Amino acid sequence: MSETLQAADVDVPEADEARPARSGSPEDLLVQEGDIAGDYLERLLDLLDYDGDIDLDVEAGRAIVSIDGGDDLEKLVGTRGTVLESLQELTRLAVQQETGVRSRLMLDIAGWRAGRRAELADLGRTTAEKVLSTGEKVRLHPMTPFERKVVHDAVASVAGVHSESEGEEPQRRVVVLPKP
Hints:
This protein is of the alpha+beta class. It has 2 domains: about 5-110, GMP Synthetase, Chain A, domain 3, CATH 3.30.300.20; about 115-180, Ribosomal Protein S8, Chain: A, domain 1, CATH 3.30.1370. The protein has helices at about 25-50, 80-100, 110-135, 145-155; strands spanning about 55-60, 60-70, 105-110, 140, 160-165, 175-180. The strands form 2 sheets. Strands 1-2-3 form a 3-stranded mixed beta sheet, with helices on both faces. It has a 3-stranded antiparallel beta sheet with strand order 4-6-5, covered by helices on one side. Strand 1 and strand 2 form a beta hairpin. Residues about 1-10 and about 10-20 have low confidence and may be disordered.
């Protein structure tokens, strides 16, 4: 990126301009979160002069926002998704500022999170199978909460093993163990 993005460059309403308290069905509220997030991210893409199509969805009780299409979008993912995680948190804060409620919104850029989910599910299953065959526990490398959840879900699909998380952020990791 040729410019440094300053917090003042992204227009977020002041607290007294915030939208009124949320009302409606849970689905309506999640759609509202997605709309707010989409507007925020569209302004960000405009500031950066990046092209991208924003898609809004609701899955498993959370708003899902995806940005696809532009050549520069990989820069918004960063190494191992670090920039993506930061943008997701900023987007959640923008939603919270407008709604007054903490958001669990999930952001994906250039399909990175979807691809990572598939890799992690495979890692969880193969690690579980290894633990089953050797009887020895396996500690995986430190992961983000999103990554750990995907691995835990994959391990849970294999009978005879279970998983736990250990350590403190940012060094928290999944441990896969045989069931006693």
